[in-house]
């Protein structure tokens, strides 16, 4: 067998190098992505189309964006072929697992329950209150029995508290305690307490209630923030795992080239067509590429373990995805012109939970300021109460029989009012502090959106260059292999070309994965959760 026939026979794997790398750049892709081309102008879409902007068609989910170095089998081919093949783990499945099982999201959801519980506790300040006491003096000069019960209902209307009561006092009382005595069937009373200055517009009970309502509103952005953070990290981990699988496939196929070439080199050496050193040189390549495969396997394992924090079982336990669950290829990136918008920074400012949380915190501070300003006022409470004894008279004349109406005024004021003044100054400083934080949060969000747009656009534009680089590297490698078969090259040059092709294919994988990570970052910067995976 001649040397040319040997290398032609071994070209089954190597020839696929050029053809499959060339397939990375289809005619359609060449039209869509040109070196130096700019995407179409961005459009502003309505809010109800937000999720559709980032949607992926079925064709995009299954279409290959990179056919890396010539293999007939995907990276999962190492699995036992006697077993039923596992379906590939999709991006949507990971996101659904995160939304349903991720511990930090489940923990954040408890903020809603906490806020509801705090609201219930604050409403307790307006519970109907029943008070009562009684006393018996069975021995002594004055023997008597007394009992009374009072019902109060605090309200949110001007801080008013209506009340009603009943009391009864029988026996002998000293003259200075004559008010404890009642007719035989007791005394009924009713009235209202109303603050006129301090406590009229706001008091501690109403402050607690209103703060609790704001707290309920704060729970939603807290949950959304955890969802955005978790799904963004899950997306980064998923695409890192998929890219690691693709790179492992590249390393294995690079190893296959060297191993499949060994037999032909041995025959060529036996025929005197190649020096004995060629066997050693190719064996060195095999060992070196075996080391690269081991390193790539470790990278895949590392990525799979990291992904297991987001990919969980129905019981919520981490599941390390198998190599057999790797997608056969990376999906085709979507033209950024379809989902980037000129007014996306305004959308982000409306959606981002950080802004909403700070705005609600500012609302709470305004409530505290209103309470502190009200505390500067003197306490001036008005109480109006009416009472009527019933039953037979116990004294003559019947001084307990007529209806009684009483009006009370209570006044109290700390002269310096330092407590309220100091609290008000503190709250004014806090309000300014929150306003500055809100300003920086808005500026940071705008910067994140701008940076996200830049990252998406630049990775999209780089695709043209790296695809062409992979195509040219494959063509050069195939040409070098032909030169080797014709005796015009050597293994050193062939190895160099193979390494260049592998590097170009790995770069293509990196850029595509980087593009999808950039899209995930950009979507998170807009504050758009993956609600579509929960439908």
In a few lines, what is going on in this structure?
The protein is α+β, with helices and mostly antiparallel strands. It is 56% helix and 11% strand.
What do you see in this structure?
This protein is α+β, with helices and mostly antiparallel strands and 535 residues long. It has 2 domains: 377 residues, Up-down Bundle (Outer membrane efflux proteins (OEP)); 114 residues. Helices cover 56% and strands 11% of the residues. Strands 1-2-3-4-5-6 form a 6-stranded antiparallel sheet, with no helix packed on it. Strand 2 and strand 3 form a beta hairpin. The longest helix is centred in the last third of the chain and has 68 residues. The two termini are 63 Å apart. The N terminus is likely disordered. GO terms for molecular function: efflux transmembrane transporter activity. This is Outer membrane efflux protein. InterPro entries: MdtP/NodT-like.
Fold topology:
Elements (H helix, E strand, L loop, with lengths): L2 H7 L1 H12 L4 H6 L17 H4 L4 H5 L28 H11 L1 H21 L5 E9 L6 E9 L8 E11 L15 E9 L8 H67 L6 H32 L35 H8 L1 H23 L3 E11 L14 E9 L5 H68 L5 H35 L10
Antiparallel strand pairs: 1-2, 2-3, 3-4, 4-5, 5-6
Helix pairs in contact: 1-12, 2-12, 6-8, 7-8, 8-9, 8-11, 8-13, 10-12, 11-12, 12-13
Mean pLDDT level:
84
Number of strands: 6
The CATH homologous superfamily of the largest domain is named Outer membrane efflux proteins (OEP)
- SSE ordering: HHHHHHHEEEEHHHHEEHH
| Rg, alpha carbons | 40 Å
Give the helix tally: 13
Shape: elongated
**CATH fold group of the largest domain:** Outer membrane efflux proteins (OEP)
Number of domains: 2
- Whole-Å distance between the termini? 63 Å
What structural class do you assign from the helix and strand content? alpha+beta
CATH top level of the largest domain?
Answer: Mainly Alpha
